[in-house]
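Hey, resending since the last one bounced:
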Amino acid sequence: MNLKKSGIFVFAILASILGLAEGAIMSEETRLEKLQAYQDLLDNEIRPIELELLEQTPSPFQPGLGREVKEERVEIVLTDEELLEKLSNYINPTGIFSIGGEYIIIFKEKKLKVGSEFGIAYEGKEYLVKITEITSRTYTVQRGVSELQLKLK
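The structure tokens again:
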């Protein structure tokens, strides 16, 4: 296909996309606006890809090739109180019961009393949390110097 035919083909596609063929009659201003829009699209500058950038770009067909981008991980240090808030989402007891006036909290098959510690995995680390109080409907957990009272769900 020669350049003139390809230009007509592109023009026909653009005309259909931009709605040049809306009707047989259009105002001169509208026609000039649309022709200018087509010309602006055809006048886009095509720049070649720089060889340096092309060498650094990984291949979509071979993901291991190309320059490796190292990801920097910034570790966010949470206070005990903030960490306890995050860990509380992973504390899911199944029940609380009382034997002889002493409350016991149940985690599936584990039964824990006041003073018991248990581990919670959060973002690849294991954190110890201590139970400091259990009532008939609530329990309090402690991490470091911070305590958080939670309700049985």
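The CA atoms of residues 129 and 143 lie 5 Å apart.

Sorry for the duplicate.
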